[in-house]
Amino acid sequence: MIDKLKYYLRINTDIDELQLERIGRYFQYRKVKRDTILLFAGEVCKELYVVSIGCVRTYYLTQQGHEKTRHIGFEGSVVTSISSFISQQPSFEFVGTLEDSELYTISHKHFYQLSIEIPEWEKCYTNFLEMVYIHQNRKIEMLVTLSARQRYEKLLNEQPFYIQRLSNKHLASYLDMREETLSRVKSK
Amino acid sequence: MIDKLKYYLRINTDIDELQLERIGRYFQYRKVKRDTILLFAGEVCKELYVVSIGCVRTYYLTQQGHEKTRHIGFEGSVVTSISSFISQQPSFEFVGTLEDSELYTISHKHFYQLSIEIPEWEKCYTNFLEMVYIHQNRKIEMLVTLSARQRYEKLLNEQPFYIQRLSNKHLASYLDMREETLSRVKSK
Questions:
Q1: Which residues of A are less than 8 Å from B144 in CB distance?
Q2: Contact B133 A130 (CB under 8 A)
Q3: Distance CA B106, CA B128 (A)
Q4: Which residues 23-62 on chain A approach chain B with CB closer than 8 angstroms?
Q5: Over the stretch A17-26, which tens digit does the pLDDT of each residue have?
Q6: How far is C-alpha B75 from the chain's CA centre?
Q7: Which of A64, A166, A175, B78 has minimal CB crowding within 10 Å?
Q8: Pick from A174, A87, A113: nearest CA to A139
Q9: Is B130 on the interface with A (CB under 8 A)?
Q10: How high is the ipTM of this complex?
Q11: What angle do CA B167, B168, B172 make, to 5 degrees?
Q12: Closest Cβ–Cβ partner in A62, A68, A133 for B133
């Protein structure tokens, strides 16, 4: 079951087979039904997920009770409430599945143990942090500089599977627009 | 002139004196007048700054031409257009001084060279990435969950020097509120 995890690590890192074996032992394979909340806001995030099959998202609630989606991870993505996972302080975000999913999970403790044991893992972690920072920044940039219609078109061109796989509700939340706006934009 | 940089690194890291000497050689000392733009949006960010004296901020313009301030760094802070510095793609942000400043600057090339030469530097970099991600996330959380007045009060309690040192214009931009709102909140 861990073979797919090793495959992801093999194509994205320089970790050798012996170390992959060691890493694999720290991960647990887990099947989760759709619409399952893996972490509630206010809890401390103690797990990180690699999506094998399905889709996991992180989101938070505004004061008005609207869901805002920070990140949606499909197959091969790493998902967690990053700030809480790093700081071990209560999470501001929820983490939950949007589809029936199969996940590889690793605990906070084992994750940082690997950073000490395997230097290349530390390097992976740095790359991950760079990537999430850039991703977050690009999202802010997109929200600030593009209209709702332009944001939809950009996603349609660059990552059409988001539009195929997500409900209008979640897609609208991810693109930071109302569902009615999304329907109007889609129909054009 | 590099003594203060070494001091910051000495109190925040485990880097030894020999390595500090090596790191110091890669940094340049630079005096910059207030209101100087160090990086324009659209340029690739090739430098990172450690603030010795003064104040440097990163900000971007909305479609309506409003300035939004992402980060303000006072003495001891690290400031750069992080996404652009990492990806070496054009920056979405401006970087500029708000006060007459003295900076330690390091080039992108030398920064990553240090990561290869000095393992502890790589560790510093990872800690820096963790910190900026958490900082960015807390800022989003604050914007979403607190009213303008609550945001001002939080800053007044936790980091009063922001309020003492920044003009109303920059403070309002940092707290993501109109200047008129800030004046109203301050007067109460």
A1: 60, 62-63, 68
A2: no
A3: 15
A4: 60, 62
A5: 899 999 999 9
A6: 10
A7: A64
A8: A174
A9: yes
A10: 0.86
A11: 120
A12: A133
